[in-house]
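Model: Ready when you are.
Researcher: Fold this.
Model:
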Amino acid sequence: MELRPLGGTGIRISPLGLGTVKLGRNRQVKYPRPFEIPDDAAVSRLLALARELGINLLDTAPAYGASEERLGRLLPGPRADWVIISKAGEFFEAGRSRHDFSYAATVRTVEQSLRHLNTDYLDAVLIHSDGDDLRILEQEGALDALRELKERGLIRAHGMSTKTVAGGLRAVEETDMVMVTCNPAHREELPVLAAAAARSKGVLIKKALQSGHAGEGGVAEAMRFIFAQPGVSGIIVGTIDPGHLRANVMAVEAALEEIEGNEPEGGAA
C-alpha cells in the first residue's frame, strides 16, 4: 500500500492500520462474537503478515490489556518501519475501565507505554476520551501534558480519540490529529473531517466496519464511503484473523483505486 501523509505531522502511514485491542483484551469489548486472545506465535505471524502487506500503522492503548507489552516484545523489523499510536486517559483494570485525564497521569501513562513498547518515542498519543470531550480538553491536564511530551521529543504528534462533534472540532483546533467514528451508518462526525481537511490535520477513522457488525458485503461499501471523505488519512481496523487482514487490505486498495479513477484529471481551468 502506498503511504499517505498524516495531516501536517510529517508522518506517513498506510491507509489501513491494524488495531490491536484483540492482542490483549477480550472482556467488555463490542465485537459480535467472542474470541480467544492469540498466543505469541500467532501474534508474530499476524504482525509479519501486516508488514508483508504494506501496513506500517499500529493502534494500541493501555486500555487494551497486554497489547502494548506484546507489541514491544514481538514487533518485527526496525522500529522506524512502524508508526505506533497509543493513547492516554483510559485504563482497564480488574475487568473494568477507569479514566484519569490529569497532567500527572498522562505523563506516567506515556512513560509506561514507552517502556512496554520498548521504544524511546511514540509517533502519536491520543487522549482516550470517556465521551465528555470538551470538559477533558478545557478542564483536565492531559492536553498540556501531551504538548510538553511532544516538546521533549517523546511523542511526535498528539491528538484525541473523540466521541462528540464539538469535541472533534475543538481537537482539530488544539491538536495535530483526531480519531473519529465514521462509516455509512454513522455520518454525524463528517463536519470534523471537513474541519481537519481545511487545517491539514491528521484524521484516523475508528469503527469503520462498525466493530465487526458491517458484514462481508458492507466492507467494500464502508471503505469507499470513508476514503471518499475529505481529510481522511487512514482507518484503523482490529483483527486477529489473517484472512480478514488480507481481505481488508484488498478492500482498501480497491476503494482507493476506484476513487482515484473517478477524480477528474488536471485542475480547474
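Researcher: Now this one.
Model:
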Amino acid sequence: MNDLSALKRNASEQPRGLAKSRKSAKKRDAILRAAIEVINVKGYAHATMAEIAATLDLGEGALYYYFPNKQALVFACHCRSLERFEALLAKADEGGGLGVAKLRCFLNDLLRDSALNGPQLYYGEFSYLDDGQSREIIQWGDRLKARLERFLTDGMADGSIIPCESRLVVNLMLGMLIWLAKWVPDVEGLTADRLMAAISAFAFQGIEAEIL
C-alpha cells in the first residue's frame, strides 16, 4: 500500500515538475529576448539588469535566479543568437537549389525570425566576456561565416552569383545586419517584406540604374 501511494504521488508530481520546467524555460527565453533588445539599443556597458527586468515587469532579483550576473546573461544572449543563426543557415542549406537561392532563403528567414522572436545580438567585440567565453563565441561565429561563404562560392560555381571575394562580401553582409538591428526599429510600419525588398535592391540587383 505504501509503494502504491508512493507511485501515485510520483505520478502526480511529474506533470507539475514538467510544467514548472517549461515555465522556467519560457521565462528564461523572455529574459534573453528582453536583454538582447535592450543591449542592442544601449550597448553592454549602459544596459543594466534592473532595466532588463523592468521591461518584463520583474524585479531585478528575478534575473539573478536565472543568471548570476550581467556577463553570464550576455554570454547566453550571444549563444542563443548563434543557435538561431545556425538553424537558419542549416534550413537554407537543406533546401538545396542554387547558391543565390540559399542566400536569399537565409536572409528572408532571418528577417522573419527576428520579427517573430526578436532581434539577434550582433556584436563582434567581446571585451566584456572572459577569455573562454570570447574564444567560444569567435570560433562558433567563424564556423557560421564559413558556411555562409560557401553559399557564395556555390553560387559562383553554379553561375547564380557573380565572381566576388566571398569573405569580404560575407563581412559586408553581416555588417549590414548588425546596423539594421540598431537602426530599422524606428522605421514606421516596417515589415520583414519591406526589409527584404531593400536588401534585394541593394545586395542582389544593385541600386545603380542602367543609363541608356
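Researcher: Key takeaway?
Model: Residues 6-14 have pLDDT under 50 and may be disordered.
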